[in-house]
Amino acid sequence: MRGVVQGVGFRPFVYQLAVRHGLTGYVGNDTAGVIVEVQGEAEQVERFLEDLSAHPPPLARVHRVESLERPAIPESVFTIRPSQTTTDRSSSIPADVATCADCLRELFDPSDRRYRYPFINCCHCGPRFTIIRSLPYDRPATTMAGFAPCADCEQEYHDPANRRFHAQPVACPVCGPMVWLESDDATRIERDDAIRTAVRVLDGGGILAVKGVGGFHLACDATNADAVARLRERKGRMDKPFAVMVKDVEWAKRVAAINDDHAAVLIGPERPIVMLERHPGQGGRMDGVAPGLHTIGLMLPYSPLHHLLLGDRPLVMTSGNSGNEPIARDNTEARERLGELADAFLMHDRDIHSVCDDSVIRVFAGHEYPIRRSRGYAPLPVKLPRAGKTVLAVGGEMKATLCVTSGDHAYLSPHLGDVENPDTLAALDRTADHLLELFRLEPDRIACDLHPGYLSADWAARFAERRGIPLVRVQHHHAHVASLLVDAGGNGGPMLVACFDGTGYGTDGSIWGGEFFLADGDRIDRVGNLKSIPLPGGDAAIRRPYRVALAHLWAAGLPWCDDLPCVAACPPAERKILRQQLDRNVNCVPTSSMGRLFDAIASLVGVRHEVSYEGQAAMELEALAGEGAEPYPFAISGADPVVLDPGPLLSSIVADLRAHVSVQLIASRFHAAIAEMIRVVASRRNVPVVGLTGGVFQNIALLNLVSHRLRADGRTVLTHRQVPCNDGGLSLGQAAIAGGIR
Ligand code: ZN
Ligand code: ZN
Ligand code: FE
Q1: Domain count, the chain
Q2: Are residues 123 and 233 in the same domain?
Q3: Which of 73, 183, 261, 381 would you call most buried, defined as having the most Cβ atoms within 10 angstroms of its Cβ?
């Protein structure tokens, strides 16, 4: 059996099944998956096979079962064999799983020997990917190797009737890892006292660094505005939202609107951060957590330590790093890098081998819509439509992930962050090595972005040279489109894809980001785009949306009048320089970016003139948008490619501003206009299927508006389900193109 069959209680499950059917033989792991040999009455063997595929263990994902007949041999029992290392193709690696209900019951049962033990786990829950050093997945190949099990744990491990039968990270207070608390006064408090003292630190408004499953978190009381403000100050994170961990779904309902789909994702074994709509006026005490937004990211506790820390109070749980550094992984690193940030450290001695940030999920149309695919999901494979070459793809620059392919499986790394400094580049380097070693892969090709200035592209070029393999540079938006095609399927027939994001290097050297592609078979052709405008000063404009607004006004031939919020936000001296740059076309980068158009509108209407994190202006604009508004007009010219000019839209907004139309209505009409652009291009091309990808589609309000319009025209809409529409999904698309699958 191949698929996710290791570390999910598969061997015990097969054992119990075989014994129930009175069969002899064995079950074992190897790097290719799980191997079973059974012998017995033909009828029993048949039933065994039926049960095997009908009710696999809850966390298993069986991708393929191959079987063949062997001659009978003398054997009298069914056994579980120790793992064998083979050179065959690797199997999948299980992802980390949140504490299960059975373990939770024991955790809070005073008569249980693991009462309040923060490392309780079983066959169906606990750390997996983050502690695995190599395959096959057995205790000596994990960071639990140094903890020799005590007699009780050993007994449970070997008892087929026990729910810890062959649970690799099995541990207890006698033999397993331990927590302790470190603070400034150099006192060290151990075990349960450490947890109780840590709770008091949080009670007192302190900031606690907590070692979790995939890295350190910085935690504080989410209802304590001073503590939240202090955390922002120390982290140097002005407005970017913090995730909040709450006790259960009931608690989450106090803060946000939660339907059954949201609840299912919240309590799922992956335990991601779920982006939810806040109750209007609710959570006033938690305003500092997500300033200016109508959404809040909530997650439920996923490690026993979280359950012990949380109690009835919501906690900010933000990744343990400052700025754009990677999340802190080991104790030494945490002491060094988080020393200035945390008042105390709750540490433990179970090492984290692979860093894994929390995943972030939105729910769209009843299914998961990933924003960040990391802990709980990585490195579970994404199925490719067919087998291609073995590729290592390094993604782009922002929100990078790596992807390696093997046969028809693509394995994506956890979220690496923005690869723009030596720290994140080192994380990329380490992750690439680890993934290739784990899966025993020798890439035929390496893929990266077309952008000449990306650190990841340089890294890929060096890798290609060292290994003597071809480097494939994939255009940014082609990669987005390919990623959607792999993720969402499609029938291979002609399909229009709207690919809207902030920045991507185009094949003509300009910056793209408001693009339409026609995907047909193996071809991906650009068939339309937002009208290109000159953007003065490039990156400076990304941090200051008012500059983009002024550039858009200039391009639309609209005067910079002082009554417009974006003009007022620009200091007169800067205005003068901008004007000269635009008039003379000096230092201007042409861009067709849709993300920049959102920035421009946010500033034009006075919502946001400067941003402290990527996507802030667009998110605040989304927060204001409602349904049912009349779209603003826009102009269309050309046939192939078709060019969409937002000029009329801008002049209508200027008129509405002067007529004192509400910002909510303007934002709604703007969103409707973007949706209408896609509808119009789709009907001109008259394609039955329309795909939506690129970071702009993290905007659920827009996604809803577009989908309604397209469906009303009888078209099918394809959106992401397994990988993010943002640059976190790029590596998958790069790998698909370089591997010859698209
Ligand atoms: Zn469990
Ligand atoms: Zn033990
Ligand atoms: Fe992008």
Answers
A1: 3
A2: yes
A3: 381
